[in-house]
Amino acid sequence: MRILITGAEGFVGSNLAASLQREHQVIGLDYLVSRDRSNLPESMYYINRDLSKVDVSSLPVVDLVIHLAAVSIERISETPAYQDINISSTSKILEYVVRNKTDLIFTSSASVYGSGVGFTESSPFIPLSDYSKTKILEEKRARFCCENNNLNATILRYSNCYGDTTYIKNKFYPGKKGIIRTFVENAIKGRPLPVIRNQSRDFTFIDDVVDATKSVIGLRGFNTFNVGTGVETKIEDVVDLVGQALGKPLTVVETPPRKIDNLSRRSLNIDKISHLWKPKYSLKEGIELYVQRM
Hints:
Elements: E1 2-6, H1 11-20, E2 25-30, E3 45-48, E4 64-67, H2 73-78, H3 83-100, E5 103-109, E6 116-119, H4 130-148, E7 153-158, E8 161-162, H5 179-188, E9 193-195, E10 200-201, E11 204-205, H6 206-215, E12 222-227, E13 233-234, H7 235-246, E14 252-254, E15 266-268, H8 283-293
Parallel strand pairs: 1-2, 1-4, 2-3, 4-5, 5-7, 6-15, 7-12, 8-11, 9-14
Antiparallel strand pairs: 10-13
Helix pairs in contact: 1-6, 3-4, 5-7, 7-8
């Protein structure tokens, strides 16, 4: 199968591309400052282009598009106009899949639900950021476009992926450093860990995220799934797990809640996808593997 991955240089994209390349012909698309310090194998065919402005007729024809490319929630918070880049990029991909009758996997976010626990795919949207509002709009456009053109498409709502070892700053729109990456890097350098009290998340290890995404390849019709663990973990407990993985005592510094997407709790219900995929790694196991890879 020929697969185009947008956002291929990013955290999830680069891990997914490396895994899929073992069995498929993978084409990576992203927008880099230079071709140096790539997260992708040199042997992989790569397109360095701004997806929001691309002529879709110039892109190679594939069997499946996995659309990961997005400006992060932090960048959109700093520059709200960046949300137009995400919308335009998704519009380009929808134009492409209609033109070529291509299957689509579109990665959304658990942030569309807002704050709470046990969210199912039918839970109401309560977005707390422009980024989340953009994801909702993109989901709705994807559904309308794909259902009206009889295309196979799946939306995946990821929850707090961790395990990132990618080089970030080479991208025109750099990705974010998640809380677990920040904790591990600070701990290794002997710096205090910035902790926001009384918050929890559903943390999903990158290997599980990759497997979940691969599990929906080939599905027919239009589908939507949560991708998480279903386990709510307090941020303070993450500190303990990082300390155990590194075998060293850690110091923390209390940090005020961020202004964007300021939700106190999050966990997802993953029953719907469970016949296709289930997470393999507990948070303890995932952090231990992550520390080994750093």
